[in-house]
Amino acid sequence: MKTAISLPEAVFEQAEKLARRTKRSRSELYTIALKEYLARHATEEITEAMNAVADRVNSKQDGFTALAAAKILKQSEW
User: Fold this and answer.
1) pLDDT of residue 21
2) Sign (positive/negative) of CA torsion 23, 16, 31, 75?
3) In this predicted model, what pLDDT tens digit does every residue of 38-50 receive, in sequence order?
4) What is the spatial distance between Cα 78 and Cα 76, in angstroms, rounded to a whole number?
5) DSSP codes, the chain
6) Is residue 70 scored above 80 in pLDDT?
7) Spatial CA neighbour of 29 closest among 17, 40, 41
8) Among 4, 18, 21, 43, which residue's Cβ finds the most Cβ atoms within 10 Å?
9) Phi, psi of 39 (to 5 degrees)
């Protein structure tokens, strides 16, 4: 699908340089970037998938494991 977007000139130039350096088309570069952005912001789907896996494994956590996991998740960039 074709679409038109507006970008700040500096962002466009950086993207052009990266596309040339990585030998990708502009469309391919923007597609990769948007997929990564969408994946990083799909926290609800990620949480649902992780919960489904945990339910299937039927793992039990002790208090220490639960606290450690919560601490790691808080420090993780989503």
Assistant:
1) 97
2) positive
3) 988 877 887 888 8
4) 6
5) --------HHHHHHHHHHHHHTT--HHHHHHHHHHHHHHHT-HHHHHHHHHHHHHHHT----HHHHHHHHHHHHHS--
6) yes
7) 17
8) 18
9) -65, -40
